[in-house]
Amino acid sequence: MKVLVVGSGAREHALVRALAADPGVEQVLAAPGNPGMSGLADCIPLTNLTDGEAVVELARDQAVDLVVIGPEAPLVEGVADDLRAAGFATFGPSARAAQLEGSKAFAKRIMAEAGVPTAMSHVCTTVEEVAEAIDAFGAPFVVKDDGLAAGKGVVVTDDRDAALAHAAACLERPDGRIVVEEFLDGPEVSLFCISDGENVIPLAPAQDFKRIGEGDTGPNTGGMGAYSPLDWAPVGLVEEVVERVAKPTIRQMALLGMPFAGVLYVGLALTARGPRVIEFNARFGDPETQVVLARLATPLSTLLYAAATGHLDRLPPLTWRPDAAVTVVLAADGYPVTPRTGDPITGADEPGDLGERAAYVLHAGTKRDGDGLVSAGGRVLCTVGLGSDLQAARAAAYSRIAQIDLPGGHFRRDIALAAAHGDIHVPG
Fold this sequence. Notes:
By secondary structure, the protein is of the alpha+beta class. It has 13 helices and 23 strands. It has helices at 10-20, 52-62, 72-76, 79-85, 99-102, 104-114, 127-137, 160-171, 237-255, 288-295, 300-309, 390-401, 417-420; strands spanning 2-7, 27-32, 42-43, 66-69, 90-91, 121-124, 141-145, 154-157, 178-181, 188-196, 200-202, 207-208, 211-213, 217-220, 225-228, 261-271, 274-281, 324-331, 344-345, 359-363, 366-369, 372-375, 379-387. The chain has a five-stranded parallel sheet, with helices on both faces. A hairpin with a 3-residue loop joins strand 13 (211-213) and strand 14. Residues 108-309 form the ATP-grasp domain.
């Protein structure tokens, strides 16, 4: 099987790495890819990931058997529709189905229709409406940009003025809308549910760290680290989420004539009232994908191709490695506000082989400058550590990141720390 992965981040690097190790895959192509993928895949230039015609032409030229779309923007813009219309098996939902991520207001509507447990919310189109909504809910204030914002469209704060300022900035955009929600207390969980539009197969849950600072302080980012498994999670959590959240959502989408085929990312808060959905995404999450795929033993191409072709019901149960996995993100100086690019990176290059290693590097925002490697984004790279438990996986990830030098680079030192110490508690 020839597989084309669309995207250039660490999530796509993790996908490429898993596919390259898959005995059923003869060739992996990445468009545009990144320097870290070049040892595993043929990287092909692609300047605009939302240009459906260009992606179709690339898939046709390379005669690929499966296209996997990594980022959310091409999905929302309908690239998966263009590929399917051209006859390509495509992993990723249609533009209509991707509204589950493209519009938080739409996702709330679907959740209400499907009876999915989630936070109470108000959709607002003016700052005055936002002010009324946040006063009704009280602090902490949760204010979300309705559209795509690369993981940075949400503000959770006790500062009323900061909440209103964020809302005002989002509403300045054409057709700007704000979703104001009640605050959900409790640990967060990310669960990827693979669907072919009818059937649902969950992957292992993970937990990510969205805030820039240790102790979950500072502004939201695209994600500063993640780990899996979640030994502290309630027994039966995955099954409950599949039955109460994923399956009702998939059924409702099919009922509305927009079947969801791809990965439904369910972001949850485990509250005293039970699991509540914080958000839906229409693609694999970053950085959770890095740890979930590190533990998946089932060949990835088999799973993604079955979802793309409507045959998930034919798959045997997934198998998982016993290892724990931890990923730590190295961010550029100034991230997430004004990240600096062009800084030299040393110590990140690794061989392209797929042998067993306790830790490895995935590239996110890097590029080649002559023979050297430089930063080219806010989240520059991440290390993935594997071990018999979270303590060992943390040690591997942090030992590897300590070998990398990026001027002004920074990372959180508390990824998976509380879980490794058994200090995470679910209310109730």
